């Protein structure tokens, strides 16, 4: 197993690969941040459900991907902040994704939330990813 320098990017890549390959679920190592991202993806309708599997030596996040008529709910995603280049934004500068058809995921001082929620609560933070 390789050492990961960016576990959030790894989680999002696993999600994108599972959707494009037509897999109905995938596993990823568990962390609280990944669980919060999965919660947002579930609320926004990109996945069916997620749960924590603690049966093994290390807990894992089991995510059930969503398909509508055989087409994945996820079209694409883009990781914005990277370990070498963090991208911080104020509440007024949070970009809209595809004119509101997608979501942005922001890590704020009040927790991880969508860009629309951050704009409503007037908090900025680290822009993690765009999902559409």
Number of helices: 3
What is the CATH first-level class name of the largest domain?
A: Alpha Beta
Structural class: alpha+beta
Task: Give the termini distance in whole angstroms.
Answer: 30 Å
Walk me through what this model shows.
This protein is of the alpha+beta class. A hairpin with a 2-residue loop joins β8 and β9. The N and C termini lie far apart (30 Å).
List the helices and strands and how they pair.
Blueprint: H1 7-21, E1 25-29, H2 32-43, E2 47-53, E3 60-65, E4 67-68, E5 71-72, E6 77-79, E7 88-89, E8 103-108, E9 111-114, H3 115-121, E10 125-131
Antiparallel strand pairs: 1-3, 2-3, 4-5, 6-10, 7-10, 8-9, 8-10
Key structural traits:
alpha+beta, Ribosomal Protein S8, Chain: A, domain 1, globular, 10 strands, Dna Ligase, domain 1, 132 residues, 3 helices, single chain
């Amino acid at each position: 197993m390789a050492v990961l320098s960016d576990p959030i990017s790894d989680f999002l890549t696993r999600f994108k690969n599972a959707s494009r390959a037509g897999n109905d679920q995938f596993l990823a190592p568990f962390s609280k941040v990944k669980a919060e991202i999965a919660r947002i993806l579930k609320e926004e309708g990109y996945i069916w459900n997620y749960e924590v599997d603690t049966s093994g030596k290390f807990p894992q996040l089991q995510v059930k991907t969503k398909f509508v008529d055989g087409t994945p709910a996820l079209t694409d995603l883009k990781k914005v902040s990277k370990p070498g280049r963090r991208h911080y934004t104020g509440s007024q500068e949070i970009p809209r994704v595809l004119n509101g058809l997608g979501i942005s995921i922001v890590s704020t001082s009040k927790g991880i939330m969508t860009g629309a929620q951050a704009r409503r609560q007037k908090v900025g933070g680290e822009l993690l990813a765009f999902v559409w």
